[in-house]
Amino acid sequence: MIRASGRVILNVPTVLERNLARILTLTTEFPPFRGGIGAVALGLARGAAGLGHEVTVLAPDFRRDNAATDAALPFEVRRFAGKSISVVSTDGIIAHTRRVHRMIRETSADVVHAVDPASQMALAMLARLRLIDRHFSTVHGTELLRYRREMFARLWMVGALRRATAVCAVSHAVRDRLLDTFRCDPARVFVSYPGIAEDWMRPGASERDAVRAGLDAEEGDVVLLTLARRVVEKGHLEVVDALSRLPEALRRRIVYVVAGSGPDAYAETLSRAAARVNVRLRLAGHVSDEDAIALMDGADLFVMLSHETATRIEGLGLAYIEAAARSLPSLARDTGGVRDAVLDGETGILLPADADAGRTAAAIERLASDASLRARLGAAALRLGRAFTHERHAREVYDQFLAA
């Protein structure tokens, strides 16, 4: 059990008690597509298979030959031709509904779990037609913003989520928003945090010196890392602005690394902003999982100042958990479900959602100047991060459904 200021964050069972089931996971995001929903779907399937469940995943092929990578997974993947399905495409949803219905019959699934919005809408249609009795959904956060703005999607999702046997929210903030937006029965909505890949749990940071040398970080320098999509809502420009307000002697000791893919125009804007205020910026671009772990091991502080937009919200922020699993404290904004991933004063510092550049600069200065504070926060972060396993998540999710 992990607590924050008396509040239980994670219950980590020590005794495995389970009923084995045939699980059908429905998703229109899945590797090789890179995205949060796909990562959650993959992790749940791995975790459920590790617990002994018989898992089948239905996912798009993204117009690629995925046979070799799928064969290496500990569960079956059934691919259909095409890419992800728009929730406002009536033809696409109808075709997906037929596909889902066929898969339910073929697999004789005990648990039918929709991890993405299009699949949730397909199950809603099957429920309306009385072709399925029990089904289950996971809600991530960002989709709730879109449902609120698009009438067609909203009407369908009201039906989908109200008819679901149980609904999993990836954070307490997402659960609160779900109850507020869709008036679901609170008794059927529960919170379970997604897990992170086992690679993040492996011990050691043997590449730290080499990574820092590659970033031109000298002894005594402090490396800040943002590992996320390179888009404006992740707050890179706000980090640069805050760094520009630090005392010059400290600013010169800081290397700011930005890793992740995104529009070239935004990268150029970020580079120009850093050059104007003499911030040592390193743009790493897209990195493999292995290189991402190496960057975490070479950094001193993870910083991601996400903010909510009209179309996006940080449902939980698995990047903070991945950083925690590498003993890296975080600096974050209290937006969406981030407060469940960064425990203020325990695994990092959580700024108010509207924190200005001055307050952000003060937090960076405090963390960059105090190695013992970073070590204390990092030790607590490690304990938290390594509890976020796929098997723990799958156990929580499917025990809830099988008991419903």
**Which class of secondary structure composition applies to the elements?**
alpha/beta
Compute the average pLDDT.
91
As a whole number of angstroms, the C-alpha radius of gyration is 22 Å
The first-level CATH class of the largest domain is given as: Alpha Beta
Low-confidence stretches: 12-17
CATH superfamily of the largest domain: Glycogen Phosphorylase B
The number of strands is 15
CATH topology of the largest domain: Rossmann fold
Within the largest sheet, what's the order of strands? 5-4-3-6-7-8-9
Silhouette: elongated
Please, could you describe this protein's structure?
By secondary structure, this protein is α/β, with parallel strands linked by helices. It has 2 domains: 2-195 and 389-403, Glycogen Phosphorylase B (Rossmann fold, 3-Layer(aba) Sandwich), CATH 3.40.50.2000; 199-385, Glycogen Phosphorylase B (Rossmann fold), CATH 3.40.50. The chain is built from 16 helices and 15 strands. Helix 4 crosses helix 6 (151-163) and helix 8 (208-214) crosses helix 12. The longest helix has 18 residues, at 90-107. It is elongated. It starts with a strand and ends with a helix. The model is unreliable at 12-17 (pLDDT under 50).
